[in-house]
Amino acid sequence: MKLTNKLLAATAIVSASASIANATELEVMHWWTSGGEAAAVAEFAKAFDATGHTWVDAAIAGGENARAVMVSRITGGDPMGAFQFNHGRQAEELIEAGLLRDITEIAEAEGWLDLVNPPSLLEACTVDGRVYCAPVNIHSWQWLWVSHKAFADAGLDVPANWAEFAASADALEAAGKIPMAMGQEGWQQSGAFNVMMASLLPSDIFLSVYGDKDADVAAGAEVASVFAAADAARSMSANSTVQNWNDATNLVITGQAGGQIMGDWAQGEFAVAGSVAGEDYSCLPGLGTNPRLSTGGDAFYFPVLDDAEQSAAQAELAALLLKPDVQVSFNLAKGSLPVRGDIDLSAANDCMQKGLALLADGALLPDPTMLITPDTVNQINTLFTEFFADSSISAADAQAEFAEIIADAE
Predict the structure, then answer these.
(1) pLDDT tens digits for 43-70?
(2) Which residues of 363-400 are buried (b: 16+ CB within 10 A; e: fewer)?
(3) Lesser CB count within 10 Å: N end or C end of the chain?
(4) CATH number listed for the domain at residues 143-294+364-408
């Protein structure tokens, strides 16, 4: 096996050298459009352009919108060179249709099987023993971002956990603050609910609901307590009228809101704003109650192309995305954790160091999108869009509908 890997690696190097002589443009589609995201994706583009090829950036705002366009392009016979999806089951149908490139040989030549940590990330790219995507980061949802300015203005101590944060809502409102920033999109609202379920309950409840699709557990007393917390979050975010997640993050950065439940990609926005972790804001993994990370994140897929030069450029990009220096520069900008377990991130800030410690300790959960289909994800998003928009929907009624969705999930 070692000899085979060495031969494959040598072949890859020769192929790479040959392809530089035939530099080509490669269209890359993604949904990274906020300030922090744009800074991160620029690191990929810079590294790819350094090979002699050209990264043609095709950013589309909003994950759901972007995915629809990407799938339409690929199934319509007009594929891009590469595209970003989340880890999980989003690409299953495209793989089954034979529209995505098998990059197993690249993964083997680059040693991904030994390097990617946790292994579940590469497993999420693997179908019937073949690798179809390059995982580039670990993004975790389980964070509460807290504005020091908002709490100082309200004369309050910075909370250390969800209970203290929720108890501060009235005082924050009295000080003219929005207790919780929340964008008006279903994925943000369902994401906050999933963070509560992962952070306020034992892991086995979370896994029973999303892994085993146990509707009885979804309808039970433990999950009812999470819907009660979601009801409180609905009240705390009632005056948060922004649409986009990064606009909600900006409310925290500027001290207009007390906090936000959002994934670690929010760190990119704090970095662009020049905010300092531990001084201007706090980050509470697991809502400060049950610290753990979900192992979601992003991966790049490569459509099957007829053009030999573009196919060669695809192979170079796939290998490049997991190179040590590229992993460091991209993830430091993005606020995410690297997928390689062998690189130095001593330059990471306080929040990223917390994430790295949890990763090292194995305090991990799979992201729900790795366990349920995109259709089920959309149903849950719709449920929470309605729940957060209409205060007449009780927590009990929302839970009953949630249990029905889980009962029908695959």
Answers:
(1) 999 999 999 999 999 999 988 889 999 9
(2) bbbbbbbbbbbbebbebbbebbbebbeeeebebeebbe
(3) N
(4) 3.40.190.10
